[in-house]
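User: hey, got a sec? need DNA-binding response regulator folded
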Amino acid sequence: MPQNAKVYVIDDDPAMRDSLDFLLGSAGFSVHLFDSAQAFLNEIANLEAGCVVTDVRMPGIDGMELLRQLNSGSRKLPVIVMTGHGDVPLAVEAMKLGALDFLEKPFEDDRLIGMVETALAESESGSKSESLSADMAARVASLTQRERQVMQGLVTGQSNKAIAREYDISPRTVEVYRANVMTKMQAGNLSELVRFAIRAGIVDD
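Assistant: Yep! Here you go:
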């Protein structure tokens, strides 16, 4: 990662902006704060390459509309979206629109720092190769039918209880299938699983 890599934080909550400014600045990033997506878009033509960290739910232009405008523009910046608990389906939609990853609040500091480092590295190398998609498809092929059903439920934001009700199995059994899915897909967390599912074509783009 280059020294003083740029991170553009967009959040309408002043306390959240200050917290992320301190956290990412302490990790060696050059942080630029914006209180709205519009303020960021007004400056984007003059900004250097970097990573965007944005909230999803904001007044005016929200995170989803921001992604749409970035997709239609000439500037391609990696975007990490922050989302509240229960907003997983919204985060999945954001990833379909091109977000690199999503982070549920409250989150661990190290997790965000790791995501930003990964986003900057992937942006530099442009890595979204066909071989990676083929590898994801192979991982999906290793799942049993029930494991695949559980994964579908997880990546669409269903709770263990909801998945258990749908397939008439116990929540404990869903937990076992969920653990198997995470292992076979080599996903460390839900956002990774969603990203892998999108790349494998399990979640339609």
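Quick note: The radius of gyration is 18 Å. Let me know if you need anything else on DNA-binding response regulator.
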